[in-house]
UniProtKB/TrEMBL annotation:
<dbReference type="GO" id="GO:0005737">
    <property type="term" value="C:cytoplasm"/>
</dbReference>
<dbReference type="GO" id="GO:0016226">
    <property type="term" value="P:iron-sulfur cluster assembly"/>
</dbReference>
<protein>
    <submittedName>
        <fullName>Fe-S cluster assembly scaffold SufA</fullName>
    </submittedName>
</protein>
<feature type="domain" description="Core">
    <location>
        <begin position="2"/>
        <end position="102"/>
    </location>
</feature>
<dbReference type="InterPro" id="IPR000361">
    <property type="entry name" value="ATAP_core_dom"/>
</dbReference>
<dbReference type="InterPro" id="IPR050322">
    <property type="entry name" value="Fe-S_cluster_asmbl/transfer"/>
</dbReference>
<dbReference type="InterPro" id="IPR016092">
    <property type="entry name" value="ATAP"/>
</dbReference>
<dbReference type="GO" id="GO:0051537">
    <property type="term" value="F:2 iron, 2 sulfur cluster binding"/>
</dbReference>
<dbReference type="Pfam" id="PF01521">
    <property type="entry name" value="Fe-S_biosyn"/>
</dbReference>
<comment type="similarity">
    <text>Belongs to the HesB/IscA family.</text>
</comment>
<dbReference type="InterPro" id="IPR035903">
    <property type="entry name" value="HesB-like_dom_sf"/>
</dbReference>
């Protein structure tokens, strides 16, 4: 997974505001929503035992081990417009999304694709 500059800047701002210098953002996926899956994000002080650690543009993002194949090749962006500001995942493994944009359907990347990351 990689971050755009906008996403990295926003993660950095949020980590600094948290008051925990060692904090990082943990990203995963969970079952839920009308399309079947949803992205999850939480601040943590350290990665879980099997998390993947991504350091990009000066910030640390921890990828939940159960989500690695779903997030392979994903770009995380932060988008603002007149009515909202949010993290957006540009994920090549996404097969569909619900109308509200809160839920997605994902197919895990094939194991042979791991070498191409």
């Amino acid at each position: 997974m990689r971050l755009t500059q906008a996403a990295a800047d926003r993660v950095r701002e949020l980590v600094e505001a948290s008051g925990h210098a060692s904090a990082g953002l943990r990203v995963g996926v969970t079952k839920g929503g009308c399309a079947g899956m949803e992205y999850t994000m939480e601040f943590v002080d350290a990665p879980a035992k099997f998390d993947e650690i991504v350091e990009d543009r000066g910030v640390r993002v921890f990828i939940d081990a159960k989500a690695v194949l779903y997030l392979l090749g994903t770009e995380m962006d932060y988008v603002t417009d007149k009515l909202s500001a949010k993290f957006v995942f540009n994920n090549p493994n996404q097969t569909s999304a619900c109308g509200c944009g809160e839920s997605i359907a994902l197919t895990p990347a094939r194991p042979e694709a791991l070498g191409a990351a």
